[in-house]
C-alpha cells in the first residue's frame, strides 16, 4: 500500500475532550449564575440586608480632675426579618495618632428584627494615665480626639460583618482654679458676731471659659475655723483670666484669742481656704476643687459710703 493509500488519522478524542471542556465550563458558569440569581431573589423575597450604623451623639456625663466619662451613642438599623446579635464592640480613642484608651465590650446585645436601636458605649479616660504617658499634654489644655468603633454583627445569609465607625472632637484636661483670699471687709463688727464679706480672687488656669455657678468652702483664720461660706452670685471667668467674687460670712472674733488683736491692728492674718466650685464649661458642668493653705490676708473696715479704705492696712 502506498503512502497515499494510508488511512488518514483523525484525533477525535482530543476534539471531543475540547468540546466537553467548553460545554462543561459553560454549564458550570450557568449553574453559578443560576445559584447567585436564586440567592438574590431569596434575599429580596425574605428581606435580608446588611445592617447600618452611625454615631449620633457623644456625651460627657462626668468630667473632673481625675477622669472623663464618655458615652458614645450608636444608632444601629436592622432591615432583616430576624434579630441579629451584636457580638463584640471594639473601641479606640486616640489623639494625634496616639492611643489614649482602647478596649472590647463582648456580647453587647441584640438588635430587633426590622428595628433600630441606640446602643450606648461607655468609655473612660483617666487623666493621670494620659499625662504620665504623654508629657506634652498639660493640665488645662484642650486636646483633639478620634473615637474609632468596630461593631461585629452576625447576619443570616451574609455571616459575620464588621461595621466600622469614627467620630472626632475635642476634650479638655481640666485644671483646678487658683484662689486667694484678697481681703476681708467688715459689714458689722462685734466680739460676739461679725458679719463680713470675703473678697476672693479666682484665676482660671484653663484654655476654656468657666461659668461660675456656685462656690462652697470652709475658711480658717489663724488656724481657727470661722465656718463655711457660699457664693452669693454667679460670675464668668474667661480662659486664663481672673475674676473676683464676694462671699458673705458670719463669725465670732472672740474665738481667735490673741490673733484677734493682730487683725484689728491690720496686720496680716494667716488663712486656709478649701472647697469646691461648680462651673459650666463648653464641655459640660464640672465640679472643681479649690484650696489655698498658708495664705495671708487683712481685715478692712467698710466705709460708710460703701468704698474701701486702703489706708486701713497701714499701722
Automatic annotation (TrEMBL):
InterPro entries for the chain: Lea14-like (IPR045043), LEA_2 (IPR004864), WHy-dom (IPR013990)
A Pfam family reported for this protein in Swiss-Prot or TrEMBL: LEA_2
Gene3D superfamilies reported in the protein's UniProt record: 2.60.40.1820
Protein name, as recorded: Water stress and hypersensitive response domain-containing protein
GO biological process: response to desiccation
Organism listed in the record: Linum trigynum
Segments forming domain Water stress and hypersensitive response: 53-170, 179-296
Family membership noted in the UniProt record: Belongs to the LEA type 2 family.
Signal sequence annotation: none
Acidic residues bias: start-end ranges: 306-315
GO cellular component: cytosol
